[in-house]
Please model this.
Amino acid sequence: MSLRFFNTYSRAPEEFRPIAADGRTVKMYTCGPTVYSYAHIGNFRAYLFEDLLQRHLELRGFKVQRVMNITDVDDKTIRGCQEAGVPLAQFTEPFTEAFFDDLAALRIKRADNYPRATEEQHVAAMIAMIGTLIERGLAYQAEDKSVYFRIKNFAEYGRLAHFNLDELQSTGRVKNDEYEKESVGDFALWKAWDEADGPVRWDSPWGSGRPGWHIECSAMATQLLGEQLDIHCGGVDNIFPHHEAEIAQTEGVTGKQFVRYWMHCAHLQVDAQKMSKSLGNFYTLRDVLAKGYTGREVRYALMRVHYRAPLNFTWEGMDEARQALGRIDEWVARLRAKAAEENVERRTSNAEGRTEAFEEALDDDLNISAALGFLFETIRQTNRALDGGTLDAAAARGWLEWWNRIDTVLALTGEDTSVPANITALGEARAQARLAKEWRKSDELRDELAALGWEIRDTKDGQKITKRGGA
RNA sequence: GGCGGGGUAGCCAAGUGGUAAGGCAGCGGUCUGCAAAACCGCUAUUCGCGGGUUCGAUUCCCGCCCCCGCCUCCA
Model:
């Protein structure tokens, strides 16, 4: 079965083949955050989808080069730094760091580069691109001194979004009387400085100002990855105008197809509405962690639904994630215990089966639900074999190997939490009470442990203490 | 109005022209001092609605309804 992804360009699944001659290198660009506040978990849904994509490509042997931009200059960051009374960089830095912390908490792999829009080399690249676009008649400087892209000279404009530009209906978000643009749809490449920008300004052949949002991605992507990318991702709300603009700018300069596969993630919803800063119905990762959930639980909750389907965020969903992870943890722990036993003649048969189904499901446009379905089926079968004593140490090791392989994609293995001394002591006391058949006392100790967040249970091999929820 | 995404059990969700994976929750059972975990069984004659094609449709075709998003700087 081949690897295939749904391409927004064609609105159809397409077999994936990288551009690189080696057939292995994959160049991937993913739109990153604007660092004017903390990212919300809807944003992270997109980053988790991209993480799943990268990890699965790597599992399949591809070498992924990924770039994610950090937008550290725009209207919101400028407004924010002025309100805070600090320089722009000082304002954006803590949010940038918080973003990286959040990525780590969600176990999202680091990209190879996180270029910032304000870096001099990138601003220089943006200016160079704008110059070329003007030379080619694809951009012009208007009376307000800003430079705009001339969409009517780029025939492909609207192709990605499948928009017929003549039929667009204004939602009121665009100001028709905005300066001297030739066409309402022309977007800013270079925004002329005005007083509201304060000290935020760069020199350019068109006067001082700052880059438009879209040009940032075009410049940084081509600088770091080259003129042609294999995959470019983002949320569906980026299709138009952002990605459309990126295509226009980049192809306007290079004359080559910018991106082969455009992949877009559906929104995270709250109460069946898009989670967004402007609606105010959002949770940051910090908000969710503050409720006692872990990054890995959020990872599972946001990753378990196919990326092109809307996902409604609920606390019930978080609890469900916790339970499901507990099931996985328990299974891994049982396999580990069994695997540690003396190797004996392998006599397992009923727990062996196809293990490729997981990866093949992901090959099919990252069908995570089917992949997880297979995982849980496997868990049930191997548990049954463990219960029945028909799964030996060698087989357990085999299943652990399989788990370790698919977990390079899932990144859901629980962290080993060492049991604190006071908890161990309570456990010991309970064991003593049980030996003495002092059931009431042992049950009280069990409750006490539960109140501290530890679960104790009795097995054939004695008591076992595990952290509830968590890690 | 244009362009998309979605509508499958109480909730989340996969899926196929041949009679509905999996997870969570719930109920009953095995195990346990009691639990927990694990396992076993039960929980959609039915896949938004109405037509059509077909031996047979949740799956294909036509029409409609509902939810969500984009339509010029939102992941």
